[in-house]
Amino acid sequence: MLRKFLLNASLAMAGLILVGLSANTLPALTAPQSGQQSQQDTKSVVGTVSSIGNNGHSFAVEVNQGGAKETVQFVVDKDTQVQGQVKVGTSVMVEYVAMADQNVARTVTAQG
Predict the structure, then answer these.
(1) CATH number of 39-110
(2) Nearest to 50 by CA among 63, 62, 38
(3) DSSP single-letter state for residue 37
(4) d(CA 58, CA 49)
(5) Which residues are bridge partners to 83 per DSSP?
(6) Domain ranges for the chain
(7) pTM of the full predicted structure?
(8) Can you tell me the distance from the alpha carbon of 89 to that of 61, in angstroms, rounded to the nearest whole number?
């Protein structure tokens, strides 16, 4: 009888510990990151840099959209990563997120 009581008490304690552990880890997995866009909002384009403005804090890329040329404007922030030398006329791939009516460049990669 005492053995059965101790077994049940041990199982109940183990259950409480597991519930406590999962309760502590779940919010970290599901909590949204404040101030950041989710990964699925990242888009990309490939085109040619047509202008660089605002002391390098903005630039425009001319892209082909279904046979028609379109100019897409981007801004650069402290988190933007530039790979290679980028200047007017450089072919680039830009990964970006749309935030507050602006396309914020996340990575700008010069194409060989």
Answers:
(1) 2.40.50.320
(2) 62
(3) -
(4) 11
(5) 109
(6) 1-31, 39-110
(7) 0.64
(8) 9
Phi, psi of 97 (to 5 degrees): -125, 145
The pLDDT value recorded for residue 85 is 94
Under a CB-based contact definition with an 8 Å cutoff, are residues 76 and 102 in contact?
A: no
In degrees rounded to 5, what are phi and psi of residue 28?
-65, -30
- CA dist 57 → 49, 73, 109 (Å): 13, 11, 16
C-alpha 78/C-alpha 57 separation (Å) is 10
Question: What is the predicted pLDDT for the residue at 48?
Answer: 97
Does the pLDDT of residue 30 top 70, yes or no? no
Q: How far apart are CA 107 and CA 93, in angstroms?
A: 8
Structural contact between residues 48 and 61, judged by C-beta atoms closer than 8 angstroms:
yes
Q: Is 77 helix (H, G, I), strand (E, B) or coil?
A: strand
